[in-house]
Specification:
The chain is an alpha/beta fold. Helix content is about 50%, strand content about 10%. Strands 1-2-3-4-5-6-7-8 form an 8-stranded mixed barrel, surrounded by 5 helices.
Length: about 400
Amino acid sequence: MSQSQVYIGRQPILDSYKNLFAYELRFYQGMNPNKHSVEETAALINKVQSDIGFQAVVGSYPSMLHMPSSLLTPESIPEINSDHLLVLEVSTQVLKNVEVLKNLKALKIQGYHFLLDDYLGDEAGDKLATITGFAKIKLQRFNTIELRKHVANLHSKGIKVIADMVDTEEHFEHFKQMGFDYFLGYFFTNPIVANGQKLSGNKLNLLQLLAKVNAVESGFDELSEIISQDVGLSHKLLVAINNPANDIPVKVEKVSDGLKYMGLKRLKFWVNLLMLSSMDDVPAELLTTSLLNAKFCELMAEQGGFAADKDTYFLAGMLSNLDAYFRAPISQILDALPLSDELNNGLISHEGHIGEVLRILKVMQNHTKDAENLTFGDLNIVQISNNFLSASAWAQQAYTS
């Protein structure tokens, strides 16, 4: 990729109860950006705004926006609903630029909020913290004693503290005990798994239902029988089918009529979604992430030369986080599902083209700074990032509908 190419990453920020608080949108570029990088960032903002809309990417949740300081002006900030909490990330580098400081003052008067990025506990950070309501700390920079000290210092100033780069649920639990308010990253997709622990009866029953729903030979009659055995699932499915977003011309009052308007593939999708959403102790954002993964894999298949297999890629994305739902090794879970060897190998060991797309997805979610050299077929990182944002917007709409 050329050094001036810019792409966008999106990461969720959860609170200490694993409820979604906000999304961070961050602009990335090559390690040695040239003089055109700011112009290209501005162009990308305009393109995303016109093609998808930033509001669609974050839904109703607050946005933490990290962009070049020279673009922190009312004219350059993406369009977000006026009642939407938009927080602009700033670093201590802005203290060296009079023009940027003048822009920040004007933005504060207009009601914008700020987040201090990469708080270091130094004099410059404490000075800039006086105008911010949030501060973000990169966890690997400090030891435990230093982290506790910085969190206490920021809390004494009334500032909420975000733990940056939380990769696993184990890390989440550790830093939660230190008093951090919010946690940035896809840690909830990397659960603490107890080896050798058997699935509970409820989870085992659900897994068996998932196996029946996703079996190749499972047709509409089998699907109807599964659904009819659960009154709650039947009701939720009818609500989903009749959602205006599905554009069905009549009100569907029987699940058996749903096939006429939705088709078996879409009906299976909704059943999968509703069954997973019924699980206890699962963060809501995990479901949105599963939807994002499914759509991202489908888009990559369509554009990467595997359009004929896009349904398989969609299913791979949908099932890629099953270990987080069941808190068991993915290999153990997939043993109970009637999936092809290609799908199994892709999900378990990231083999083949499906596995390659899942690896790319993990980089986009957890290690976006390492993404600049990602490719898939003829797709480069900019096109991959566009697919990620499109999938994010689709997931927001699918989940809320």
